[in-house]
Specification:
The protein has helices at about 10-20, 50-65, 80-85, 100-110, 130-135, 175-180, 195-205, 260-265, 270-275, 280-290, 300-310, 310-315, and strands spanning about 40-45, 70-75, 90-95, 115-130, 160-165, 185-190, 210-215, 225-230, 250-260. By secondary structure, the protein is α/β, with parallel strands linked by helices. Strands 1, 2, 3, 4, 5, 6, 7, 8 and 9 form a 9-stranded mixed beta sheet that branches. Helix 2 packs across helix 10, helix 2 (about 50-65) crosses helix 11 and helix 10 (about 280-290) crosses helix 11 (about 300-310).
Length: about 325
């Protein structure tokens, strides 16, 4: 189950936005040194959410300061990143939320990508309400009672229905299908991006207003705005197979790393280091919080984390 399931049109739009000249040119955004024989350069794909930025920041810092590599980073949406990885335009994806179609195509069929191991973090998407509202109305945490609270969650953007807030419109989640399948009196409203969604959530919390939002763990915002998950119908294998008829919760997904196959075999110390790179949800959140809330640059945040956690990262270095 992917963190986001992209429709073909959404992927094409994302590609055009990245390149300004069409999908065929997307990988020109990547480093020309990616997978170059004998080079001391590594190119890492960076997803748009801050947790993924935290992974890359720490990996980049250690590759540069401890192993002497130059690191290039490229921001590419989730599915196009697999194409770039297969072509050798990037060397590694450090946080993938599950793309079985791409795994079959590039790992099983083509052999151009290899699994890089578990990141150590388990991801989960869900629907959340602020804990202050859940404490006042405990039954709101059961999806069967959501229609009872639709009016409380209504906004100017939700067209007379309750608002279910999502993030970027380029992400195609299960939420519209869930609303329809479960017969809920709600409208999915896109905030526009993770940053815009965070801003809206923080504003609701400041005013102690009720809200219902698509959100995910790990995410540093839980430390600033406590939220309680709404229980959706239990996830079962295959219950999300038809994206138009999904009527179950999102799964818990151990997040994975993936490498270009040539890099995995010939990437030397860099590949060995990235295979060993494995940390916890709390560690990722520590770095993400410094980037998003304390407004440190990713490299400043990584430097602080590295200074305080030598016993952890030393084990990642090749012997």
């Amino acid at each position: 189950m992917a963190r986001t399931r992209y429709a073909a049109l959404a992927a094409a739009v994302a590609l055009t936005a990245l390149t300004g000249c069409g999908a065929a040119d997307m990988t020109r955004q990547a480093s020309p040194y990616a997978a170059a024989e004998g080079s001391r350069t590594v190119t890492l794909s960076v997803q748009s959410w801050v947790g993924a930025q935290a992974n890359v920041a720490v990996a980049q810092y250690l590759l540069e300061h401890e192993l002497g590599y130059r690191v290039d980073t490229v921001q590419i949406d989730e599915v196009p990143a697999w194409d770039a990885l297969s072509q050798g335009r990037v060397d590694a994806i450090l946080e993938d939320w599950g793309h079985p179609d791409q795994e079959k195509r590039y790992i099983d069929d083509k052999g151009t990508i290899e699994r890089g191991g578990d990141l150590g973090v388990t991801g989960h998407i869900g629907w959340f309400v602020p804990t202050y509202f859940a404490e006042q109305h405990p039954d709101v945490t059961d999806w069967k009672n959501l229609n009872k609270y639709a009016e409380a969650f209504r906004t100017a953007e939700s067209g007379g229905k309750g608002q279910l807030m999502d993030g970027s419109p380029s992400y195609v989640t299960n939420d519209k299908a869930l609303v329809d399948s479960l017969g809920l009196d709600y409208q999915v409203v896109f905030a526009g991006s993770e940053a815009a969604q965070i801003t809206q959530i923080k504003q609701f919390a400041k005013e102690q207003k009720p809200f219902l939002t698509y959100w995910y763990k790990p995410q540093w915002l839980f430390e600033k705005v406590p939220m309680t998950e709404v229980k959706l119908p239990a996830y079962k294998e295959g219950c999300d197979a038809d994206p138009e008829k999904v009527a179950c919760a999102y799964p818990h997904t151990p997040l994975q790393k993936f490498f270009n196959a040539r890099f995995a075999e010939g990437g030397g110390d860099a590949a060995a280091f990235l295979k060993r790179f494995r940390w916890t949800t709390d560690m990722q959140n520590d770095v993400a919080l410094m980037i998003a809330e304390q407004k440190l640059s990713p490299q400043e945040a990584a430097g602080r984390w590295v200074k305080d956690n030598e016993s952890t990262w030393r084990a990642w270095l090749p012997s």
